[in-house]
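Example 3.2
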Amino acid sequence: MNIKTGCDREVFATYPYRSACPSSVWAQLISEAEQEVFLAGYTNYFVWLEQPALLQTLRRKAEAGCRVRFLLGDPESETTRQRELVEDVALTVSTRIRITLEHLAKLADVEGVEARFSSAADGPNHVSLSVFRFDAEALVTPHLARVVGHDSPMMHFRRTGEGGMFDRFAEHAEELWERGTPAR
């Protein structure tokens, strides 16, 4: 029997692939978040595909006082161009970002929905690590060198106290957010 102690208690689940995490986990985290939904993936494209009525859900959450934030890579940046060369797939990184921006444009009138691009200097840090935060829970994907996001591993954290794994990843995303520029 393995008993978790210390910061490893925050590790709730791990997945060998982001795509192995059931969409019901994402749906539950989004629906149960009351204060914050912070999607800091480089494109966030897949969330729109996997979560039915996400636009309406995010609108309702924001209207109820939940802060909804998207941190995206800049579709025109050198980091994006380099990642497109690495991935070498038909649905390019810049296209996936633009699809997210298209969805976010439909929320432009909603107070509490914000979107930023990571800074040019932070692009390499952002493209290599996605942090999706829902109040005191987070899904984190460290991106492997030559694979698209859905083929990279993912960890599910639940915050248990200060200075743990959850806080480390949440602080990383906040730092990128603070240096980012408005996306719309």
